[in-house]
Amino acid sequence: MLTVEDIIKATGGELLSGNAKTFDGVSIDSRKISEGELFFAIRGERFDGHDFLENALCKGSGAVVDMRPASLPGGKVIIYVNDTLRSLQDLAHFLRMKRDIPVVAVTGSNGKTTTKEMTYGILSGKFRTLKNEGNLNNHIGLPLSLTRLDHSDEVVVLEMGMNAAGEIRRLCEIAGPTHGVITNVGSAHVGRLGSYEAVRSAKLEVLERVSTAVVNNDDGFLMKGIEELKNFRGEIITFGITNASNVMAKNLKVSQMGSAFLLETGEAESVWVSLNVPGLFNVYNALAASAVCVSLGVEIEEIKTALEKYKGIPMRFEILRKRGITVINDSYNANPSSMEKSVHELTRLGAGVRTVAVLGDMRELDEFSEHEHRTIGNIVRETGVDVFVAVGEMMGLAAEESRRVKRGKAAPVVYTFPDADSAKENIMDILKQGDTVLVKGSRSMYMEKIIEGITDVI
C-alpha cells in the first residue's frame, strides 16, 4: 500500500486535490491501470502520459503530473511534481531504502534475463523474493518494478540494462544494490559507446554501489577491467568452467536437451546438476545465479533443486521439434557476441545432421556494423554451418564473407532475403527433414515471423 504522505515525502510533490489515503500500486499505462492505482504521467520521446490523463483517472484513483491540469477532477488525487519520471524513480528509491534487505543487480552483455530468472528461481524457494518482470530493466521499468516492493519481501533481484555510459550508475542510485552480477562483457551497444573498453566500463559501474561482486572468471576482458579498478573494496566471488573459480562447473556433459555438471561451491561443497536448457552459455548463467545465491546463504542442494526445475524463456535459445526438424528459436535479440555463441551452439547441437543458420541484421552497431557482420560470416564458414540464410542488408555482407573459402573450409550454401517476411515465404523450400535450424537476429528484425513460417507448416 502506497500512502499519499510517502509519495509526497519521496517526490517533494504538492497535493492539488483528492482525499484518498492509500493506493494499491503504480501504473504508467492508462490502458491497463486498475482501480486503486496511481498513474504517473511519464513523458517519452514519442508519447506524453498527460495526453491520456483523463482516461487514466476514469479507471484509476489518482495521478502524478508535472503539468498543472486546467481543471481538477472530483474525488481523484492529483499530485504535482517537477518531473514525473524523476519522481517515479525517487519513489522507487524511497521504498527500497525503507527496507534493509539484499538487492541483487544483474548486468552484462548477454544472459542477464536468464541469470535473473535462475537467481529468482533459487532464492524464491527460500525467501519471499521480488524481481522485475520480463524485460523491465531500464530507467522506467526498474523503478516501476520497485514500487511493488512489499513489507514482507526479503530479497530483490533486478536485471539492469543499458544503452549508454552512466545508465547502470543511475539504476544503482535508484535500487541501492548490495550484490552485483556481471555475466560477461561483449559487443552489445558498442556502436553507441564507441569501444569495447567503454562497454566494459559501463558494466563495471555496478561495482560502485555493491559490497559483493559476482563475476565471470573465464571472461578475460572483464577480469582485466576489474583488476584495473582501484576503488572496489568489496568481496569478489568468481564463477567459471575453465579458470579456477569460487563456483565452478566440472565434468561438464552437454546435449541438445541440456547439460549435466558437477557444481562446486567450495572445497567440500559439490553436487551433480542436470540443467534442462541447452547451450554452454546457460551453464555460465546457472553458475552466476548459484554464486550469488551461495553468498546469500542458500544451501547447495536447494540450488540444485531450483536449477533443475528451470525451463527457460520463450525466444531465448528455445528448442522446438516438429516432424524431424529441430528449431532453435533464439529470435528475441542479437549482438555480435551472442550471435557467435549461438552459431557455435548450433554446430555443436547439430553434429551429424545438416545445420542451417537463419540470421538477421544486428542493430545499434553504427560504424562497427560492417566489420561485425563480416565477422559473423567468417564464423558461419569456420564453424562448418551447412546452410546460411541471411536476412537483411547488413547480414548480406556476412553472406558475402561466408562464401570466401579460406584454409580449405568449404563455404555454406547461401540464401539472402531483404527482410523476415520474404524469408518466411521461402524458408520451407530450403529446410529438409532432419535439419537443425538456428533463427536469430535483432528484435527489430522480427525474426519470430520465420519461426511462425516453420512451425505453422511443419
Could you give a short description of this structure?
The chain is an alpha/beta fold and 458 residues long. It is 36% helix and 23% strand.
Q: What does the model show?
A:
- With 458 residues, this protein is an alpha/beta fold.
- It has 3 domains: 80 residues, MurE/MurF, N-terminal domain (Udp-n-acetylmuramoylalanyl-d-glutamate--2,6- Diaminopimelate Ligase, Chain: A, domain 1), CATH 3.40.1390.10; 211 residues, UDP-N-acetylmuramoyl-L-alanine:D-glutamate ligase (3-Layer(aba) Sandwich), CATH 3.40.1190; 140 residues, Protein-Tyrosine Phosphatase, Chain A.
- 36% of the residues lie in helices and 23% in strands.
- It contains 16 helices and 22 strands.
- The strands form 4 sheets. Strands 9-10-8-11-12-13-14-15-16 form a 9-stranded mixed β-sheet, sandwiched between helices. The protein has a 6-stranded mixed β-sheet with strand order 17-18-22-19-20-21, sandwiched between helices.
- Strand 9, helix 5 and strand 10 form a beta-alpha-beta unit.
- The longest helix has 16 residues.
- The protein is globular.
